[in-house]
Amino acid sequence: MNERSEGRLMRLQRALGQGGSLRLAEAAALCDVSEMTIRRDLAGSDGSLVLIGGYLMLASDPRHASVYDLAVQRDRNAEVKRQLCERALATLAEGDTLFIDCGTTLTPLAASLPDGMSLTVVTYALNIAEAVSKRPGVRLWLLGGAFHDSSRSFSSDQMAEEIRGFGLNKAFLTAAGVDERQGLSCFHFHEVAPKQAAIATAQRRILVVDASKRGMVRPARFGGLEDIDEVITEEGIDD
Question: Is the pTM of this model over 0.85?
Fold first, then answer.
């Protein structure tokens, strides 16, 4: 992140320091830049500011209780996530190159990749990489850059291009929100580019998501349901 971007974020943090929120347009006017510039600043930030429904606020604001924290999410719906990943494992084929998204939903998948199957895993998530690194025979590509502790993931300006350079057979994607009209969304703007690059590149796009995400809309939209080839969720959930 450059000095000008850091300066804008500091100005916005000071403006929000007494509580309240700012419309995105107001934040852009305060910094004398475009709304897209503010969005880019947020995408490269440490997550101390969040954009919810067009309003900018501090992540620490008690009214914003839905800020993602991987440590909190790790044990939430853990058994369901394990069962969903078992079903995801059944889709693997010898020689696959896989994109595995960040978050906790796909950690059981990464930790259970079968021995003896030639696989390559591409990820930008440290927790996924740590799990994959323990699987014998699996080739791992960890995409680096600026580290975001809340999601244990990385971001860089080159990441989307790097992902497009892989011949991905399958992309295993996660979402914090799945809404029929608003589509697929997540908490962090830095996740949008790698998710979209994987969607654009992979032969098959597989969304692994538990039913608690249904009907939710999170700050950063990365695609629509039409971008997904298969959804793995609990049995009995409507199409």
Answer: no
